[in-house]
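Bumping my old thread because nobody answered last time. Still need a sequence for this structure:
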């Protein structure tokens, strides 16, 4: 497994999932990405999309990672559609900003319906959260500055 950060392989739970060394149910996967349910869901539908390549977090992303992040978004939307989420305007997608990442492996949170999230989930994943950045803002920062601020 390729690594682009300090962690990786046996030390990283998402690397273990990506290399099929756990019993985690994979909802969707391809050569580059995989999607599975969050073990501590913040919404009725809460999925994580992770790259098979170990990337530490969203601060490790660079401009040339824009296509990767866009594919992560596509897979997240596909997982929602596969699980019969109809209103794709009532979703939240984003990343936790270090040091508030629970696992040091890049993972996109995909949550729906956003309008039904609890107060606790809103604080963790909502628009007022200081440690959760929406995926569209990540893409904007990457395209404009070449990195996430």
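Sorry it took so long. Here it is:
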């Amino acid at each position: 497994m390729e690594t682009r950060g300090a962690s990786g392989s046996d030390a990283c739970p998402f690397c273990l999932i990506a290399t099929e060394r756990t019993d985690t149910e994979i909802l969707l996967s391809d050569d580059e990405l995989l999607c599975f349910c969050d073990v501590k869901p913040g919404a009725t539908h809460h999925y994580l999309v992770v790259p098979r390549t170990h990337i530490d977090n969203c601060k490790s992303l660079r401009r040339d990672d824009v296509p990767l992040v866009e594919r992560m978004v596509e897979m997240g939307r596909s997982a929602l559609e596969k699980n019969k989420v109809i209103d794709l305007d009532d979703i939240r997608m984003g990343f936790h900003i270090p040091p508030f990442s629970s696992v040091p492996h890049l993972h996109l949170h995909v949550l729906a319906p956003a309008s039904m999230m609890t107060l606790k989930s809103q604080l963790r994943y909502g628009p007022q959260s200081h440690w959760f950045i929406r995926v569209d803002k990540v893409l904007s920062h990457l395209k404009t500055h070449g990195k996430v601020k």
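Residues 72 and 105 are 14 Å apart (CA to CA). Let me know if any region looks off to you.
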